[in-house]
Every structure is written in C-alpha cells, then in structure tokens.
Amino acid sequence: MWAMKGMMMMKGMGKDDGWGGKGGGDGWGGKGGKGGKGGGYGKDSWGESSYGGGYGGGQKRGYSGGSANDGPEVKGADNLPGFNAALLEAFAAAGVSEQEEDVDGLVKKIEAVAWKQSKKFYNDPRAQTRMTAAQARAFVEDFVEQAMSGFQTIFYEKPWAEKVGWHGVLLTLVAGTLRTGKCFTRVMKTEVIQFIESGILNWSEEERITKEAYNALQMAGMTDSYMKKANQHLTKSYDDAHFQAPYGTSSNDSTDVATLMDFIKGWMSMFANKAYSQLENGLKDPSSSGQVAALTAIFQHLFDPNVAACPLALQNCLMPSPWTYIEECATEVIHEIENPPPKKAKTEEAAAL
C-alpha cells in the first residue's frame, strides 16, 4: 500500500515510449514529440534537439552543444539539456505556479542542486566502471536518492510537493550526467527508467519512515528537550534491527508474522536500551508502567497498517491495530532492562589465572 503511495511521486509520464512516456520508440522518449505529461525528449535517444538542447560533438561530448569536455564541470543549467524544460513541465502539471510566487527562483535553486549532484556522480569512479545491470541499478538508485534528498531541502513541507512527477526531471539528470560513462554497458535504455523509479521509491520510503518515527515520539509524549536525541536513537535502532533483530525466536502460525514479531522485538529493545535516559527523563510518567505505555504508543503507531513505518518486506503482514503483541513486547523489554541477567561467574580455571 505504502509502496504504491510512493509511486505517486513518479507520476506524470504518459505511456508507451519504452520508459514511461508517450514520446515514441527509441527507448528514451524520442522521435515522438512531447506526448503525455513529461514524456518525449526529442529526436534522438539521448535528447539531441530535445527542448532546444544538444549535447555537443566529439568523442567526449559535453552538454548543450558546449566544448567537448565541458560536462557538468561547467556550472549552469545549460549543462543539463532538457532539465529546465522537464522541471517546468512537471511544475505546470502539479499546479506549482498557482501556489508559488517565485517559480523562477525555485527552479534556479533546484537546478543548483541538480548541477551539484551531476558533477559529483560524473566524477564518481563508478561512472567509468563497466557494470552489471544490478550494479548499474544500485548506482542510479544512489544518484536518484541523493538528488531527491537535495531537492527536498527546497520543497520540504510545500503543499504541492507530492503532486510533482519527477520522472522526466531525473531522467534528464541521469542521462545528461552518465551518458559518456561505462556504467550502462550491460543496461538497456528501457531499463534506466525502472532504476529511477526504484530510486524514487527508496527515497520516499526513507523520508516517510523518518517522518513517522518523529510523529510516533510526539504521540508518546516525549518532551521537546529530549525529542532530538530520542529520534536519533529510534532511527539508529531501526537501522540496526534490520540485521541484528533476534530472528527465529518468535512463534506464530505464519512465518511472515513471526519475522515481523522478531523485527519489532529487536527494534524496540535496541531503542529502549539506547534511549533509556530519554525514557527516564523525557516522559511525564517515567515509571516502569509509563515507559511501557510510551513504547507501546510508539510502536503501535509505527506498525499500524495505515502507517506501515517498517521495511517493505514486512508491510504485507502487518496486524490490525492495536496489536496486543506490541504491549506484551514493551512490557518484556522494560522488564529485561530493569532486571538484566546476572554476569556469568568466572570459571575456576579462569579465576586461577
């Protein structure tokens, strides 16, 4: 469900051009005109003559018809052919101009972020490495996630943010940056838009989970002075739980639900141990029962099917909220913290040493 919501960030490209637009049949949206929203990027498969831009000539062609080695080393929107037009088209489709007074200023800010990321990935050694399709996917996803994180600093909390389709914008950015590299040696052009889609989905999921983690702490009554540190601990323990949760220790008729229970136990236990100071000092009721109530509130929110702030692999097996297991788990976690197992006594042999 939340994976589908993340796909909303990628709308606006039309159909049938091999990568999601209506541009035609060259795999990048060429030879078909503009087509649907965001679709169609000119005459050839890399965008020459598209939106008035070309890539220049020579074996190591630069951008926008500039010198042979310009690349993204030369700052400016002209070095990302089609980017400005794709961005304006995406904004028009989302009605941004109706809500923003200075659209030109907004575009310039996003162009600056795009150029910075373009230069970074253009100079990344991976761009000149012959990759498998899987390696190229990971590289493009990384590029997209970092670009979107940069863009978000500009459109954060804007009411139109989720309405913008970033397909065409990111396609021009990725194609313009990596077209002279070797990373696409084993990649068909029609696959690149899939890499971009998964990169946007990865980014949107991370941002959504980060936001819901903060919301969960607020709902549990964490005071403002302890919120920042508690949020850091909740995020870090979420990362750790992916590989360090006590998998195989929970019992359930469903293997998937048992894995979900293991993940919750791991995340909750790691968080409670890291954030013990915040639980003791940042809650109105710092008693054991108060801490159990806070942990219960936090994780009931995170694992509510309508929130699903958890790995994609677990989102299809979430239980209806409120789930009694979460309160039971919280009680167990606080008990374990307050009653740690005794340290193992040294053996006689070790003591003799």
Shape: elongated
- Using DSSP, what is the number of strands? 0
Helix content: 40-55%
What percent strand? under 5%
Which regions contain 5 or more consecutive residues with pLDDT less than 50? 7-70
Give a short account of the largest sheet: none
Coarse structural class: mainly alpha
Rg of Cα set: 25 Å
Average per-residue pLDDT, rounded, comes to: 81
Q: What can you see in these coordinates?
A:
By secondary structure, the chain is mostly helical. It has 2 domains: 204 residues, no CATH class; 119 residues, no CATH class. The protein contains 12 helices and no strands. The N and C termini lie far apart (60 Å).
Short description:
By secondary structure, the protein is an all-alpha fold. The chain contains twelve helices and no strands. The chain has helices at 2-7, 83-94, 103-122, 133-155, 167-178, 189-219, 224-244, 255-274, 276-281, 288-302, 324-338, 348-352.
Write the layout of secondary structure elements.
Elements: H1 2-7, H2 83-94, H3 103-122, H4 133-155, H5 167-178, H6 189-219, H7 224-244, H8 255-274, H9 276-281, H10 288-302, H11 324-338, H12 348-352
Helix pairs in contact: 2-5, 3-4, 3-5, 4-6, 6-7, 6-10, 7-8, 8-11, 10-11
